[in-house]
Design a protein that fits this description.
With 160 residues, this protein is of the alpha+beta class. The protein has helices spanning 15-22, 25-28, 117-122, 126-147; strands spanning 2-11, 35-42, 45-54, 57-71, 75-84, 87-100, 103-115, 154-155. It is globular.
Length: 160
């Protein structure tokens, strides 16, 4: 089962500041919904642990992440693999940062592939839950990037 997501927002920060935030797991990982902890291996590899709960399947997922593409201050892309009781997940998430008005625009896109028993047990719950959690993360990222710099406009869209 694949869940695709994308959207964009603007903040009053320079593209360099936004890029530096998005490529520092110590800054953005705690914003993940159901975040538990973070283990940084090196500048491009880290593991994040999050709580997972879908239907009667509950537990924690360790997701090994890799900064696969880094083009400061324009683009960052992460690839990750993880497992949770009843399934595995493979994901790709990218951020394109461009100058806009008095700051930067962040266009984000990604896809999560979910495999295993989890897809048959949770079925139709996975996509809405996944999109809800992605939106929570994006809202948290935007808020964190806006905190020190004033207000920002929002324009978010999602596609299935």
């Amino acid at each position: 089962m694949a869940i695709k997501f994308n959207g964009k927002f603007e903040v009053k920060r320079t593209p360099e500041e936004v890029y530096d935030f998005l490529t520092d797991p110590n800054k953005f990982a705690p914003l993940l919904p159901e975040f538990q902890n973070l283990s940084v291996q090196d500048a491009t590899h880290f593991t994040v642990k999050v709580n997972v709960g879908v239907s009667y399947i509950k537990g924690a997922a360790d997701v090994k992440m890799h900064l696969a593409e880094a083009d400061r201050p324009k683009r960052a892309q992460y690839k990750g693999q993880g497992s949770v009781a009843g399934g595995n997940v493979s994901l790709v998430a990218g951020f394109d940062v461009t100058p806009a008005n008095e700051g930067a625009q962040v266009a984000w896109q990604g896809e999560a592939q979910i495999f295993g028993r989890l897809t048959s047990v949770a079925g139709g719950l996975l996509e809405p839950l996944g999109k809800k959690n992605v939106q929570k993360l994006i809202d948290s990222l935007q808020a964190a990037l806006t905190r020190e710099s004033g207000s920002a406009g929002t324009q978010v869209s999602e596609t299935a």
